[in-house]
Design goal:
mainly alpha
Length: about 450
């Protein structure tokens, strides 16, 4: 009782909402469609999603409990609930975490960032351009390294003596969008969504590296324009000379260590394997899951035990839980049910209306759900509805991923919140930039992206 009294009013309201909404769903009488299995699925899933959104319980703990709950109460069989572990998605994620940990610890990622920025960072604008390029290239090759890039951006702000200001907001937000917007045209960005689709029995092929860039060229333009917005909206009160700082940081690192050279060779093998998949024909997905572990082998020895122990296993369980939501929902027939309800509403409408509905739902859903939770909830129904339009499923997944990135408040998306949490961006500046970015994305999507997909034949099966 004392622990309840110690709660703040906000925390208490969060817990009330966390229990009240699932309780309301539980009190709905069972019927022909809303069976006890379906009821338990909705109650437990909504409870978990609220825990993720409101941060009332530890995310990893909830992600572990949710699938176990379904098996224990007979909502679905264990083979269905845990089917995600049979797919390559989880193993690629684990390998990506491991590779990034090694390259970050030995300093190769920081070296690359300092080198790129030192070549462009003679002015404030040059710093932003250099950061944007370095961050984009790291994201394209090694995945979304939010914490690392946020720390580097924060370190640059501190080095120039910035507190919360327009200049610091420009540095942080340029780095932020170069991680999170540039991932929208990264070839592996749809891994989680593909995993959810495949768990539901919907076959979706992942685009190759160059295919992803080609079909998503309007999103590359979107990223460039976001960087331009940062340059225009956030100007320093006094121009700075930044080249010397980055040149000195690079000089402090000295020559490349033996570990860095070995890691560079393995990284070249890794990227070469991905880029030449059309030539060698081997499984790109399982190759991506295997090659980074060469860093553990004798003769290379770049990796240490800490690179494995520090991997973000909690995120892996979270991804698995989200994928399981899709597979269990499909096994209960919920995707087909939602399709039956929504499809008539879209009947006779153009494909633009379909994508408009997806964009609006993902944008509004951000206010109450996490992006991965939305993928878990909406991937299967959206793909089923898109099938009636003859739309290519991979185009729907790419569109969902750019739509859910549009936020106004930092709390809506945890990865944006990481950049905001360093205290270098005011809420006013964040909201102003978020609103401008959202409007820009809407224009790019419906004026360029969908027409481009139509022109290239990517939109339809």
């Amino acid at each position: 009782m004392s622990s309840i009294k110690q709660m703040s009013k906000t925390e208490l309201l969060k817990w009330i909402a966390n229990f009240a909404i699932p309780l309301a769903l539980f009190l709905i009488p069972c019927g022909e469609v809303y069976t006890m299995q379906v009821k338990l699925f909705f109650v437990s899933t909504v409870f978990a999603i609220l825990c993720f959104a409101l941060e009332t319980l530890d995310q990893t703990g909830v992600a572990i409990m949710l699938p176990v709950f379904w098996v224990f109460f007979g909502v679905a069989k264990a083979a269905t609930v845990f089917s995600c572990w049979n797919q390559y998605i989880i193993w690629i994620v684990l390998s990506g975490f491991f590779l990034a940990n090694v390259l970050q610890r030995i300093g190769l990622l920081s070296r690359f960032t300092y080198w790129v920025v030192s070549k462009t960072g003679a002015t404030y604008r040059g710093i932003l351009i250099g950061l944007a390029l370095a961050t984009m290239l790291i994201t394209q090759t090694l995945g979304t390294r939010v914490t690392l890039m946020a720390t580097i951006a924060y370190g640059i702000c501190v080095a120039f003596g910035y507190t919360q200001s327009k200049a610091s907001a420009g540095i942080m937000l340029t780095t932020c969008v170069s991680v999170l917007v540039s991932q929208q045209f990264r070839f592996a960005v749809t891994l989680n969504a593909i995993g959810i689709a495949r768990s539901a029995g919907i076959e979706v092929a992942m685009l190759g590296f160059f295919e992803s860039w080609f079909y998503n060229m309007p999103l590359i333009l979107f990223w460039i324009l976001c960087v331009v917005m940062c340059i225009v909206m956030f100007k320093p009160e006094q121009e700075i000379e930044g080249k010397e700082y980055f040149t000195n940081k690079l000089a402090e690192m000295g020559k490349m260590s033996a570990d860095e050279k070995k890691a560079t060779i393995v990284l070249a093998i890794y990227l070469g394997f991905i880029f030449t998949q059309k030539i060698h024909g081997m499984s790109m997905e399982w190759g991506m899951a295997l090659i980074p572990w060469l860093l553990l082998f004798p003769g290379i020895g770049c990796a240490k035990k800490e690179d494995v122990s520090k991997m973000n296993f909690g995120m892996v369980f979270f991804i698995c839980a989200c994928m399981a939501i899709g597979s269990v929902a499909t096994s209960l027939g919920l995707g087909a049910l939602l399709q039956e309800v929504v499809t008539p509403l879209l009947s006779g409408k153009s494909v633009f209306v379909l994508f408009l509905a997806i964009w609006v739902i993902m944008f509004l859903g951000n206010f109450v759900m996490t992006p991965l939770a939305m993928l878990a909830a909406f991937t299967v129904p959206f793909l089923a509805i898109a099938e009636t339009f003859g739309v290519n499923p991979i185009s729907v997944l790419h569109f969902m991923l750019t739509a859910y990135d549009q936020i106004i408040f930092p709390y809506e998306y945890a990865l944006y919140l990481i950049f905001f949490s360093f205290g270098m961006i005011s809420m006013k500046d964040f909201m102003k930039f978020g609103a401008a970015k959202t409007v820009l994305n809407f224009i790019i999507c419906f004026a360029l992206l969908i027409p481009w997909w139509m022109f290239t034949g990517f939109l339809y099966v």
